[in-house]
Design a protein that fits this description.
Elements: H1 3-74, E1 93-95, H2 115-118, E2 131-134, E3 140-141, E4 146-161, E5 166-179, E6 182-193
C-alpha cells in the first residue's frame, strides 16, 4: 500500500467516526427537544385545568350567594339549606352545589331544596360524592355524565354575634383537581351576613 492509499483509507475511517459521532449528537438533541415538547403539552393541560378549577371555586361561592338571595326573596330564613343557625351548638355544614341543586324543589311555604342530594358527611376534598361530572349540556355538575378531574365541597360555618343574637356564615368553596397523579386544591372564602 502506498502513502496515497494509506491517507485515503485513514480519511475514510475518520469520516465514519465523525458520522457516528454526529448521529449520536443529533439523537441526544432530538431527545431533549421531544422531552421539552412533552413538558410543554403537560403544562398547557395543567394551565387549562387550573383555569377551570379557579372558575369552579368562584362558581361555588356565587351559587351559594344565589341561594341566599332566593331565601330572602321567599321570605324564609336567610341561611336555610346553607347553615343551621339558632339555639344550640353551631356546626359546619358540608355540602355540594351546582346549578340544579341550588334551585328550590318545592313551592311555598316550605321552599325546601334537595338536602339529601346536597349534604356531604364531611369536608373530604376528594369525597366521591363531591366529584363533578361533565354532563350532556357541557356543564360541570353532579348529574350523570363523564367523570371529571374536579371535586367541589362547600363548607358553611355559622357564627353568632351581637345583641339581639345575629349570625354570619364563613363560607368556603374548595375545588380539588387530580391531574396526572398529583392533587391541586383551590379555595375561595367569603362571609355571608344575615342582613336582608
Amino acid at each position: 500500500m502506498n502513502i496515497a492509499q494509506r491517507k485515503t483509507s485513514q480519511a475514510s475511517a475518520f469520516s465514519l467516526i465523525e458520522i457516528l459521532l454526529l448521529i449520536s449528537l443529533v439523537s441526544v438533541a432530538f431527545m431533549g427537544v421531544s422531552s421539552l415538547l412533552r413538558q410543554t403539552v403537560q403544562l398547557e393541560g395543567l394551565a387549562k385545568a387550573d383555569f377551570t378549577a379557579n372558575a369552579l371555586a368562584d362558581e361555588g361561592i356565587a351559587l351559594v350567594k344565589a341561594m341566599r338571595s332566593d331565601n330572602i326573596a321567599a321570605g324564609v330564613n336567610v341561611f336555610q339549606d346553607i347553615a343551621a343557625t339558632g339555639p344550640g351548638p353551631l356546626a359546619t355544614h358540608y355540602f355540594r352545589i351546582d346549578r340544579d341543586k341550588k334551585n328550590f324543589i318545592t313551592i311555598a311555604p316550605l321552599y325546601n331544596r334537595d338536602n339529601a342530594g346536597m349534604d356531604l358527611v364531611d369536608g373530604n376534598p376528594t369525597n366521591p360524592d363531591a366529584r363533578l361530572n361533565f354532563d350532556s349540556n357541557e356543564y360541570y355538575s353532579y348529574s350523570a355524565g363523564a367523570a371529571s378531574d374536579f371535586y367541589r365541597v362547600i363548607s358553611a360555618t355559622p357564627v353568632r354575634y351581637g345583641l339581639p343574637e345575629r349570625y354570619f356564615v364563613e363560607l368556603s368553596s374548595t375545588v380539588t383537581l387530580v391531574y396526572r397523579g398529583k392533587t391541586y386544591t383551590y379555595y375561595r372564602n367569603t362571609r355571608l351576613n344575615d342582613a336582608q
